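Entry 14. Structure prediction run on the chain below.
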Amino acid sequence: MKTNDYRLNMNVELPAVLRVEEQLWVTSPADGVSRLPLEREARESGHTTSFVKFEPGSHFPEHAHPQGEEIYVLDGVFSDENGDYPAGTYIRNPPGSQHTPFTEQGCTLFVKLDQFQSDDKQAVVLRPEDQQWRPGIGNLKVLSLHTYNTESTALVLWPENEVFQAHTHWGGEEIVVISGKFIDEFGEYPALSWIRSPHMSQHFPRVEEQTLILVKVGHLNL
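Output returned:
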């Protein structure tokens, strides 16, 4: 099979939505580790976005991050030789870094691999106890995770029945629904939904129940 046959959702000029309950998890080369691909440039390298599930006691071989690795721990406790990362931890492993990940109790991750800007070298580990939430627009609460040039990543907590203003996505927008259910005029997105909206797209979002989302903006090709 040709490498290009593995490409998935790599045209960032097109919207993309994947709901985890509609997808099949795929086994990885490591026992006890499975993945749900969201974006993929090649089979086992290059630009990749995915949900990754580690069964209790599983591990993944040592590997390098040529263009960086970004991780959000959705549940459980993720570990490597540098420490333990409980649910709610945000990690940035810069270009050229490497590690040997494992878990004792099991975990689920959201992972973006080989997508750092070339001069963004900052390593980040933000555990829940280190995070400082601030008021956002309306009744939203916002936790900034990382900002570099036009790219910004944050957690946003929506209270019950919150309605946000209609807005345009300059540089695109990518959302992972961590808990609750996110809604806009195009559909409803339960927990572990992934939404990618292209540059200059628009929507009018709201929620009916308390909802937590991970949001990245300004990072898609302009």
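The chain has a mean pLDDT of 94.
Filed with the rest of this week's runs.
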